[in-house]
Amino acid sequence: MFPTFAVMKTDSKVAIFPGSFDPLTLGHLDIVQRALPLFDEIIVAVGVNNQKKYLFSLEHRLDMLEAVFSTMPQVRVDHFKGLTVNYCKDQGADYLLRGIRSSGDFDYEKTISQLNHVIGDDLETVFLITRPEYSFISSTIVREIIKGGGDVTSFVPPALHSMLQI
Ligand code: ADP
């Protein structure tokens, strides 16, 4: 007779998806949706940098994130100040999630992830390559179109279409 062992799940896999989300785009949403099977929880966290000028207020960006992610039980919306590695520690997250659109993104993200691995106690960054149809979408471009009075409905989730007036 062999003893039976219960398979117990001890620690859950938590990932932080940090960003400015000024505003959230279909590219961001796609990264989160594709990462859902990889993690138990994903925290979409707005990094607050007081030196940076944003188009949308922190409160409005958080409202927009809630409008998009409130139907996904695995996703939590939050914000943080200071070093991302410290926020990960506070949240018990062992993973960072980032999207890669181009070799420019890659070069930048590679350095940051290597740095975070050292100062963040082996914090791992998981990269997902953008789907081709979203690779040209950036919050910067969406902001410029909004400022110019153009139509951004092809670039942002439908839940945000009525929330992007400035
Ligand atoms: P940050 O100010 O940290 O760059 P962003 O909100 O611009 O914040 O981006 C957050 C993350 O989402 C980054 O990893 C970025 O590369 C990724 N991202 C942004 N746009 C896209 C897109 N169209 N497709 C895939 N990933 C994207």
How is this structure best described in words?
Helix content is 34%, strand content 20%. The chain is of the alpha/beta class and 166 residues long. A five-stranded parallel β-sheet has the order 3-2-1-4-5, with helices on both faces. The chain contains five helices and five strands, in the order E-H-E-H-E-H-E-H-E-H. The protein has helices spanning 26-35, 58-69, 84-91, 103-119, 139-147, and strands at residues 14-19, 41-48, 75-81, 95-100, 124-129. The protein has a single domain, classed as Rossmann fold (3-Layer(aba) Sandwich).
Key terms:
binds adenosine-5'-diphosphate; Rossmann fold; about 170 residues; alpha/beta; 5-stranded parallel sheet
CATH class: Alpha Beta
Summarize the helix and strand pattern as letters: EHEHEHEHEH
CATH architectural name: 3-Layer(aba) Sandwich
Beta-strand level of the residues, as a percent range? 15-25%
| Helix percentage range | 25-40%
Overall radius of gyration: 17 Å
Cofactors, ions, other ligands: adenosine-5'-diphosphate
Q: Which residue ranges are poorly predicted, with pLDDT under 50 across at least 5 consecutive positions? A: none
Total helix count?
A: 5
Mean pLDDT rating: 94
What's the CATH topology label? Rossmann fold
The SS-based structural class is: alpha/beta
Shape: globular
What characterizes the major β-sheet?
5 strands, parallel
Order of strands in the sheet with most strands: 3-2-1-4-5
CATH superfamily: HUPs
Oligomer class: single chain
Number of domains: 1
| Total beta strands | 5
Tell me the span between the first and last alpha carbons.
70 Å
